[in-house]
Amino acid sequence: MIDTLPLATTLVAGGFAAICLVTDLRERKIFNVVTYPALAAGFMLALAFGGVPGAELALFGAAVGALPALVAFLAGALGGGDVKLLAALGALVGPMRVGEAVLIACMLTLLWAGGQILWRRARAGEAPFGAGVGAAVLMLLVRWHELPAGALLRAFA
User: Is the pTM of this model over 0.70?
Assistant: First the structure.
């Protein structure tokens, strides 16, 4: 079992993921005004809760999130906002969790794109990956923070 995230980190990561999900679906953009503060918050929270080793882990998480996305960006497969989203997410939740989120985001994005193509609402290559990442993080936060799903659903009801 992995260590749970501090509540403050869970709230920041959840808010960040929700904002990126909505803006990527609506605008097809992930804004710098959201990603840069989230990246800074990731480092500050890691330092506050884990000291220098926590900050080092946040740096490693940012690299694990950003470097593969940077390769995809250079190949034209992702936008720059996706790279910054994954860097900030890696700083917030760490290298293992960002990797897990990316794998689930890939599956969610493929399902979304397939559905859109089947219903002829989009062409191939138009799937908003940032929205998939946001959805994956929101789903995974329940496990990462060991939130009881029933209590979480009642909180939003």
Answer: yes
